Structures are given as C-alpha cells and as structure tokens.
Amino acid sequence: MVNSYKFSYVKNEEDFYNYITLIKTTWPEENVDKIAIRLMNTIPNFNYKNIYTIKKENQIIASLTLIPQKWSFGGIPIKVAEMGLVATLPQYRNLGLQRILNKKYDETLIKENYDLSVIEGIPYFYRQFGYEYTIPLDSEINIPLKFLPDTNSQYSIKKIELIDIPKIIKLNDITKEKFFINSIRSNEVWKKQEENGWQADWPFKTYLLLEKGIIKAYLRAEIVNNKLVLIEISNTKSNESRNICGFLKKIGLENNVDELVCRINHHEFFSNYLVKNGGKKNKPYAWQVKVVNYFNFFKKIIPILNNRLYTSSYNFLESELKINFFKNSIILNFFNGQINDVKEDKGIKRSEIQFNPIVFPKILFGCASHKELTQNYPDISINSKYQELIKTLFPKFKSNIYPCY
To answer: Could you report the per-residue pLDDT of 16-54, keeping only the tens digit for each?
Structure first.
C-alpha cells in the first residue's frame, strides 16, 4: 500500500462520524448512512471493529462493513457475514483500495469461522473477489390498486404492539418452513426492527390480521415514493389474502397512491394471489455468495446430505466421492449409505467430478441443477456414472432471506 494510505478499523466516535460522511458522500440519495447508524443499534455484538476503512492522513476514503447474520441451511444454523456499505470516494477509485479491504475482511472470515460471505452489491464488480449470484433477492410484483379485491367483514386489522412480537415470530417460523434456506432473526432483532420501523433500507409499519381476536397473519408495509410497498408477510390463505388486499387498497387510496409494490418472495401464496389478480412479476436480482471453506462447510452439512441419501436408492452405498475444486478436493466417504467422513485433498489432479469453486454455490444452495451448470460452464464436468448421485446430494430448492437489521 502506498505510504499515504493506511488500513484501520473504526476506533472512536470521530472515526464513526467520518465513516458516515463517506457513506453519505458515496450514496447521497439512498439513506445508506441511516443503515450504518441502525447497525450499531440493532445487531448484537456489532461494533467499530466490524467497519474496515482506509485513511489518507485523517480522512476515511474507502470502507466496507461486515454485517453478521445467521441463516438456516435445512435447519442447521450457518454463520454468515454480509459485506455491506461498500464505499470509496470517487477520486480514489481504481487504486485497488477495495482489494486491500477485502483481504482484511477475508482474514476475519477465516479467523472467526464464518461459513459464508454474501453481498447484495452492484453487478459484476464482486466476481473478482470470488462471489457468484445464487439466492433470490429483490423479488417484486407490481399491481395497480384498482385490481385488488375489496375486503369483507370476517377479519379485522390492527397495528402491532410489542407484546405481539412473540406471536408474529411463530407465524414467521411457519412461513419459513417452505424455504430450505432462510434467515434467523433473534427476538432482540425483531424488537429493534419494530422500534425503529425499518428493515434494511425500507420503512414499514406492521399490521396484524385477526379473525375473532386471533392473529392469523402479519404484514409489513408503508408508503414510499408515492407507492405502497409491502416488504414482508406471513403465510396466508385465499380469503386472508383477499382481506389483506382490501386493507392495502384502502391505505393506498387514502394516501392518493395507485400502485402496490410487493417485495416478497415469488413462491409465497400472497405473491401468486396478486399475479392471479393482474400483478406483474419482475426478474429478481440475487445474493452474491462465497463459501469461506468448503471442507468446513461440508462437515457441517453432513446430516443434510445423509438425510437425502437415506430416502434415495443410494442408501446402501459404500464408496468414495471426490469433488475436485481445482485448487483442492473434498472427499466424501460413504459407509452403508451414509457419509461417515469428510477429507480434504490439497492436490490438483484431475478427477471424474470437477467444479468451478466460485460457481459451486449455485448447486450447493439449490438454485441450479448439475445439468444446467454443465451446459453453461465448460469448467464443470461430471462423469455420467456420478450424475444421479450428485442430483441426489444437491437438489434444487427454495430460499428466502429477510435482513436482520
């Protein structure tokens, strides 16, 4: 690094103020500075050392932030670092400063045993750091409010109170069951989000749908830029969906808004209900994902892989499977149809199963099949005798992540 540039964590309030100034300068119209402030107040154990900076003299000219999260991989908690609030002053771009920050960030991932690093990020840029588009992000359905049905008198809707939080957490737990990968939000995070009225960069109010005084569903919505934006909803049935639509329509018309933007997963029942009423789906963006250490990750998910084997035609398999990632290989040992050991081979010899390690998250996290990958990536090859086993170990599935801040 040029002597005039210095790496440093944020160390004090003055540094934090300078960091906020950098964020506001880099993203002047996106309220990203407010997210930075909320991180300090919302996420347990988030502190100044989560903020990586490069200074020139006493000015912070570049930064990135490690946002700790917890996701569920088929019921197994995984430790996730989100790289967020990446910023460089315009006059200092293309000097490799983010590469320096990424090296420090990656050292933390290894030292603190993170399973994944993820980023929402701008297109293309983060491929150079080993990230691949994997898990759906920013799903939207747009629908004119006039297309929404009116409500009936079977249900009532009220704003949430803090004492209701445990009840909506239970509803969310039920909603998450359809998604193999989902986010884990602590009671404290739920409470902080309700107190702040923000989820990531979206403001919201939480409403409860009641039938005879019993909470049947919850939703988070708010007027943003002359549109009614729905950012979260629990499982709903047809009649519940109709009444929520009627409620949203009423809010919109009272505020001279004529469109609903539904920012929830396209696999939710409510999403499909909107489409049936004339809503238009977008093409979602995606979380960019990097597995920190494949050996450690495979060890962690052995129970998931064994469950898949147990219900398959491979439930008596006794063999060894070598997955070559070019720089290293992961060896799965099978005994009586179950994986009883995982080994790492640092050799680079060719094998009958070869995966581009950057692209492998696409199959690991269920967003692409082995056939789709081999057709599109010449550096992925699977011998035909192993293709059915790979399909069994790595099926396609649904995922949905809500921010924890």
So the answer is: 999 999 999 998 887 888 899 999 888 888 999 999 999
* Same domain as 354, residue 271: no
Looking at the fold, whether 19 and 59 belong to one and the same domain comes out as: yes
CATH no. for residue 201? 3.40.630.30
Structure tokens given for 142 = 């747009």
Question: What is the DSSP-derived secondary structure letter of residue 18?
Answer: H
Number of H helices, E strands in the chain: 12, 23
**Whole-number Cα distances in Å, 173 to 304, 318, 325:** 19, 37, 35
Domain boundary among 283, 310, 338: 283
Three-class secondary structure of residue 294 per DSSP: helix
If residue 242 lies in a helix (H) or strand (E), which one and from where to where?
helix 238-254
The reply to whether 240 and 307 lie within a common domain is no
- 178: CB partners within 8 A, 6+ apart: 267, 398
Domain of 33 in residue numbering reads as 5-136
**Cα–Cα distance for residue pair 355/364, rounded to 1 Å:** 11
Q: Based on the domain organization, do 160 and 235 belong to the same domain?
A: yes
| pLDDT higher than threshold 70 for residue 3 | no
Question: By CB neighbour count within 10 A (0-12 exposed, 13-18 middle, 19+ buried), where does 228 fall?
Answer: buried
DSSP letters along 94-107, please?
TSSHHHHHHHHHHH
Burial of 218 (0-12, 13-18, 19+ CB in 10 A): buried
Query: Of 102, 136, 170, which residue is a domain's last?
Result: 136
The whole-number pLDDT of residue 83 equals 97
- 82-95 CB burial, b ≥16 within 10 A, e <16: bbbbbbbbeeeeeb
Least confident interval from 101-105, 112-116, 129-133, 349-353: 349-353
Q: How far apart are CA 19 and CA 51, in angstroms?
A: 9
Residues 25 and 86 reside in one and the same domain: yes
DSSP-based three-state secondary structure for 16: helix
